[in-house]
Amino acid sequence: MKYRLAFILVLAFLQSCATVDSPTESFAFSREMKYGFYSYNFKRLEGYKPESELALIFPSIPGAIFGNPTDDILYVAEVRNSHTFKLVLPSDIDAKSATIRQSGLNVVPADTKLLRLGTFHAFSPYRDDIGGGGFINTIDNEPLILVYFSNPANIRGVLTLGKQKFDHQITISSAGWNWIKVVELSDNNYRLSEFDGDKGDIEFSVVVNTSVSI
Question: Is 22 helix (H, G, I), strand (E, B) or coil?
Fold first, then answer.
């Protein structure tokens, strides 16, 4: 069941990601990460070989864990013939963040600001064709979300999006970037909580439309 979760809210991406200036300030987040190709049912495609260069695109989603990406692109990773990339995020994230205002959620402190890192991909030279992506725990294939918090905080409550319900049981112990795991409890019911696993097991999943049989 959990495989159906695959990026429920990969929304139409605002296509303004052609150029991103290299940040010059100190970075709040910098990590070498792995990536892999996945089918829509979250099966890893070990034999998949893209026909063109790949760009991993990371827009901002301020004030919501589930919401629309903005045209503020925080980072673009151009990857070539390697299954690793460096994710580098600038230090001025607090100024880009916003308080969360979604029905059903209780945030303490109420003035907590957050920003979710959006996750998309594109194959050059077809950059107008934006595809889905996301972070995944390779141990159990559970989706992960990278979210910036302005301060330690608790988020409780249930967010309803159509038929889907997201029970937020999030406790953030420190400001900055935090990993949130999404666990499918039953059909259309999910729980969000702080990820407590090994960050070395986190991979970026490039979701591709393919007929490869696995």
Answer: coil
